[in-house]
Amino acid sequence: MLTTSIEAVTQKDNPITQCGGYLDGPAGHIQTPDFPKPFPLPLSCKWILYTPPGYKAVVYFTQFYVRHGFTMAEYELYEDEDFYIGKTDLGTVNFEEEMESVQPYKPYLVLRFNVGPTMGNMHLRVEHFLLDVYGFNITYEIIPKVEPQTPACSVHNCSFLGNCLASRDYRQYTCQCFDGFYGEHCQFGPYCDPAIGMNMCRNGGTCRSVLH
């Protein structure tokens, strides 16, 4: 079940858009308002992911394009900012860290995304390939502890040359490559194409297209 909300509130004469929700599985997605378009500023979001006994939660950073503002913490019990037990900060996440997934060990995982009135240089922008993406669209699943987590992808796995997309049941992930690129990880393209013998590497090396 996913309970989510987006609303505007006023604090010190500045309109603040709030979003987030309570997540209790079995799978779903977490995204910024209007993804992949620009989200309203300032923005304050909080998602609470609960994992029942005998299960584990996994969050996959499939389409994650921000440099700062996203933090995670896990708790033994969490009701609100004034009442919680056993907090462990998991730190911040940005797309440059190449993080593919995170698996909390406590029942409650709280994900926060806070951005002030100006965005600054916080999102991935690659104009040459018509990619101008704001925010994130990540997925999660809650599965039995004995079950292996789903092999997923991310913007890094797709060589920054394609989008990582999930199937409707969140059990399969694939890279959808931009025009002119192909391969399981979008690693082949105009300057590295084994289909036509294009290989810029020397001394027996194998090339791979990566936009970073």
From TrEMBL:
Signal sequence extent: none
Domain CUB: 19-143
Pfam families: CUB
Disulfide bonds, paired cysteine numbers: 158-175, 177-186
InterPro entries per the UniProt record, alphabetical: CUB_dom, EGF, Sperma_CUB_dom_sf
Stretches assigned to the EGF-like domain: 149-187
Domain of life: Eukaryota
Gene3D superfamilies according to UniProt: Laminin, Spermadhesin, CUB domain
Keywords: Disulfide bond, EGF-like domain
Listed name of the protein: CUB domain-containing protein
Lineage: Eukaryota, Metazoa, Spiralia, Lophotrochozoa, Annelida
